[in-house]
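Slack export, channel: ligand-projects

TW: morning all. Re-posting the request from yesterday since it got buried. We need the structure predicted with the small molecule present, not the apo form. The ligand is pyridoxal-5'-phosphate; the SMILES is in the block with the sequence. No rush, but it would help planning for next week.
GE: picking it up
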Amino acid sequence: MTTTSADQLFHPDNARAYASGITDGLRLMVDQLATLDRPVTGLSPELAAKPVLDVDLDRPLGSTADALTEVRRLWLDDTVWFHDTKYAAHLNCPVVIPALVAELLLSAVNTSMDTFDQSVGGTYMERHLIDWTAGRAGYPEATRDGIFTSGGSQSNLQALLLARGEAQGRGVPLERLRFFTSADCHFSIAKSARMLGMGDAAAIAVPTDASRRMDIDALHRLLAECVADGLVPAAIVATAGTTDFGVIDPLHAIADACVEYGAWFHVDAAYGGGLLASPRYRHLLDGVERSDSITIDFHKTWFQPVSSSALLVRDLATMAHASWYADYLNPKESENPNQVDKSVQTTRRFDAVKLWMTLRVMGPDQVGSYFDTVIDLAREIHGRLLEAHDIEVAAPSQLSTVVFRYHDPRLDEEALGEVNRRIRAELWSSGRGVVAGTKVDGRQFLKFTLLNPKATVTDILDIVEQVRSLGRSVLEDAR
Ligand SMILES: Cc1ncc(COP(=O)(O)O)c(C=O)c1O
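GE: finished. pasting the full token output, ligand included:
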């Protein structure tokens, strides 16, 4: 008979082993922080792959210390550090300490949020946070609700599931349903239409205007065409903070269109949702209170560790489209408040406690002022770049992105694209800064997404200087 050592289980008998393992991990992280001086080391995929794939997972190292040393070599030493002020690429935020403390607890307890009998107070903490956030969005107290999700993509999927359910409930066949969304929306909207069995053609991209916001005349034209073709606008999705341009679609005008066509109004505020806590820019979300549902990513502009997102809904009753009752988990007759009744996930992390700790330690104004700070930074950088003769800047952001590129009037579009792609790759390899790349109407650009309230104008202009100098040297190499 084999005996199984239970030494590694989280259990009161192993409290010392637990404390020692966590202390080792903590020490490693603190050591690592002390040595970091750049956002990345610039490793290529080829160099990153081999040492990882060489590990024989059938042969354990046997000690936490050794495993941590290996993890450090394979991951931490070359990872991407979002807290570094020269990281300015994607929508990743540095995270706040109260949330990290909560993360430690929630992982150890391993609470699952599907049912009350697996979470107890956790269910009410999540509900209270959802109600508080929905209140900030201006939803009516009597009906509002929502659920924490794994991220913006899942929140959008669930919103559209509800929109589809409402339209089908009115007797509209699936193949006649259409979703309208701006051409600059996040890809998860079109992907949701596919996952919901409506097909790619069901997501209709509305062109944007000169400020890159949804063009309302075009929306009305497309809506009218849709109805004339015997199709049904099931939902209009506004983006409150587009991924590239950080602009907010005209919320009131879209709300009006939804009323006119009887369509569900979803606001994808995955990026702009942090404005709900903003002391100075909350007004940018005016009109959001007229929506039926809102996506909020706490793991973007609320400085929370991944994952932490929510779907808010105006009317709890619409969540029925996501409900399923199982005798072994959440029987219909259960009187317990079971969160799984309104979630597309079953087992689900207690991410809410991270936001809870954050709010209880820092309060909403401080979190919101982090976002305000990076919005101000983006405005300042955009203004500075407009003055530069060798930089081209795209439409200004209402939030914290800056879309720009190195520019030389002697180059044609293809050459400009190649130079900017090379700049981005070489900047990565240098480890001295990280920027994103994107295309604007088919033309290659670079992008700053500024989410670090510790980053200064000097930090970001330093990256711009590197972009310039790399641009010049790429051109010289090409001669
Ligand atoms: C506007 C918008 N919506 C949705 C998402 C998807 O969020 P997640 O990555 O959390 O799934 C993003 C991600 O960047 C986004 O920018």
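GE: first-pass observations. The pocket of pyridoxal-5'-phosphate is lined by residues 91, 151-153, 156, 186, 188, 239, 241, 243, 268, 270-271, 297, 309 (CB under 6 Å). The mean pLDDT is 97.
TW: perfect, thank you
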